Amino acid sequence: MNKSEKARRQFLTRIGQGVAMAATGGLIWSYLIKEQANAAVLAIRPPGALDEPDFLAKCIKCGQCVVDCPYDTLMLAAPGDQAPIGTPFFKPRDIPCYMCEDIPCVKACPTGALDPALTDIDDARMGLAVIDIENCLSWLGLRCELCYRVCPLMDRAITTETNPRKISKHAMFVPIVHSDACTGCGMCEEACPTQEAAIRVLDPSLVQGKIGEHYRLGWKIDTKVTQDFKPVPRKGKGTKRPQGPAPGQDYLNEGISYD
Fold first, then answer.
1. Which pLDDT score is estimated for 75?
2. Burial class for 148, CB neighbours closer than 10 Å (0-12, 13-18, 19+)
3. Distance between CA 128 and CA 118 in Å, rounded?
4. What's the whole-number mean pLDDT along residues 177-191?
5. Among 35, 95, 123, 159, which residue has the fewest nearby CB atoms (within 10 Å)?
6. Domain residue ranges of the chain, discontinuous segments joined by +
7. CA-CA distances (angstroms) from residue 153 to 98, 128, 142?
8. What pLDDT band is residue 220 in, cutting at 50, 70 and 90?
């Protein structure tokens, strides 16, 4: 084999190796992109994060919010994490958001991916705490209530209700999460004493339904029409409520006649 043929073979071999490496790299990159896209919905973002598409469009992955977080709550996603690579997120079970009143992460963001209009940390909506009632100690009849007690918005985001306990006459104090006040800080998830947290912070879109705009909940609307269907206050003390509807009256509408 002369030198020219040897050089030619080496050249073709290197081309084949380059093509193989490029194809392999393309497959790996494609896999990572799909994994990151699937994981994005599980990412718990910093306070003030815009809706995910807008957040990803504005976030430049600079890490300034991570640097300014005083509790090391925030981190930048690495390959395999539950967020697109380089974007900020946190794991509530490890370190929750401790609800800084001055919200330093928002102030550090140079692009507005963390909305500067957020000035009250109680208005943050990082996620929604969801309770697994089959594994929650309080729902099983034990006294726990840790999630309720560590909640920074106690009696607003998490309340407790009394339920009868099947095995005794004592009541159970069970936690209830209220989506209109829950900030998704994750302090409840971090404090949960079960082996796997029985309360977890998730993207609300994963767990909340939508009733639909065609429904009209009349009891939540205060108009003249709904006022007509409200019970009329009875004057005088000791007046007893009738035990049943009078003939020709509709008991569902508080005695309004349908004749």
1. 96
2. buried
3. 18
4. 97
5. 123
6. 23-123, 127-208
7. 12, 13, 23
8. confident
pLDDT in tens, 239-259: 454 455 555 545 455 555 444
In the chain, what is the straight-line distance between the N-terminal and C-terminal CA atoms, in Å? 111
Percentage helix, strand, coil for the chain under 3-state DSSP, each rounded to 5: 30, 15, 55
Alpha helices in 40-145 (DSSP H): 52-58, 64-68, 104-108
Cβ neighbours of 103 (radius 10 Å)? 21
Antiparallel, parallel or unpaired: β 249-250 and 199-202: unpaired
- The domain 127-208 having CATH identifier 2.40.10.340: the answer here is no
Q: What is the pTM of this model?
A: 0.70
How much is the pLDDT for 214? 81
Residue 186 has pLDDT above 90, yes or no: yes
Q: Which residues of 181-203 are buried (b: 16+ CB within 10 A; e: fewer)?
A: bbbbbbbbbbbbeeeebbbbbbb
